[in-house]
Each structure stands twice: as structure tokens, then as C-alpha cells.
Amino acid sequence: MNSRRLRRMVIIAMLGSVATILMQFNFPLPALPGFLKFDFGEIPAVLAIMTMGPMAGITVELIKNILHWFLSGSPTGVPVGEIANFTTGLLFILPIYFIFNKFRTTKGLATGLFAGTVAMAVGMSALNYLVFLPMYTYFLNMPATTGDALYKMIVLGILPFNIVKGIIMMVLSIALFSKMKNWIEQQRVKLMPE
Question: Mind giving me the DSSP string for the chain?
């Protein structure tokens, strides 16, 4: 195994572990449903895609959610929350990569973060409506939320939660990039797959 590949694997594992720790310190946002928990676990995945590409970011998201499930368990017995969090992470980081990879500037990153926020907010609203909320109610053996109650939960809870989450991640990612731009570019040269 060449040293570049080994170094990538070690850094991805470390970023995945940091993301897991950050995910453990989740908390609800005021005025939004309590079951929606905010965490800073996407930041290491954003760092991974900026330095090593999309597969690194996806792997960080996967490690984070698998470890979180093992550490915290799931009230449903099935990792519905972790699957939703993994999907959220992908919807957020992949647009960042595709835009930032073409325009490696603060403006390019901001545009990617904005696109990631929109993709995450819209995508998770649809997926919660169609997949994740029905999965939760099914596995918890609860009556399904339907009609106006489901619509309000999506429009007044899930959509604003993901917009706020995206904005916070945008501010933090841009601040991180502005402080670490040279280091990120150096690591990209050293770590990006050949």
C-alpha cells in the first residue's frame, strides 16, 4: 500500500472519529421540534471533501453514523435516525464538492455551501415526508402522522431546521476555510487520489 493511500485512510478515519464525537454533542434548536437535533458533525466531512474528494466525505459521513449508532443505539431498534443523518450529510456535502472543485475560492465555497443547504433542506423535507417519518412511526409502532399534521411538521419543523443548520454550517465552513486555506490546498495536493 503506498504512503499516500495509507495517509488518506488514516486521516479519513480520524475525521470520521471527530465527526462522531461532534455528533454526540447534539442539541435541539429553540422553537423547532425537539426530535430534530443539531450537531457539528458535517464540518469534518466538508474538510474531507475539500482535501480528498467526494468519496472521503461520504466515508466520513458513513463512519460517523455507524459509530454513533453503536455508541447511542436507536429508539426504533433500526438506525432510522442515522440513515436520515447520513442522507442529510450527502445532500449537503456533494453540491459543495462539485462547485468548490471547479471554483476553489471563498466565493466558490460559499456558492457550494448555499447549494448544499438548499439540497439538504428541500431533499430532507421530501424524504422525511415520503420515507423517514413513516419509518419512525412504523418501527416505533405509533399511529402514522398524516394530513395537516405531517405537512406542518415538514413546513414548520424539518424545512426551517435544515435551513438553519445549513446557514450555521456555511458560516463555520467559510470561517474555517479563510483561516486554513493554504493548509487545505497543501493537503489537497498531498491527499487527492491520483
Answer: --HHHHHHHHHHHHHHHHHHHHHHT-EEPTTS-TT-EE-STHHHHHHHHHHH-HHHHHHHHHHHHHHHHHHH--TTSS-HHHHHHHHHHHHHHHHHHHHHTT--SHHHHHHHHHHHHHHHHHHHHHHIIIIIHHHHHHHTT-PPP-HHHHHHHIIIIIHHHHHHHHHHHHHHHHHHHHHHHHHHHHHHHHHS--
Judge whether residue 98 has pLDDT over 70. Answer: yes
Which class is 3-27+37-191 in CATH?
mainly alpha
How far is the C-alpha of 37 from the C-alpha of 27, rounded, in Å?
Answer: 5
Q: Is the pLDDT of residue 56 over 60?
A: yes
Say whether pLDDT at 85 is over 90.
yes
What is the residue extent of each domain of the chain? 3-27+37-191
pTM of the predicted protein model: 0.90
pLDDT at 1 over 60: no
Comparing CA positions, the residue from 8, 50, 21 lying closest to residue 178 is: 50
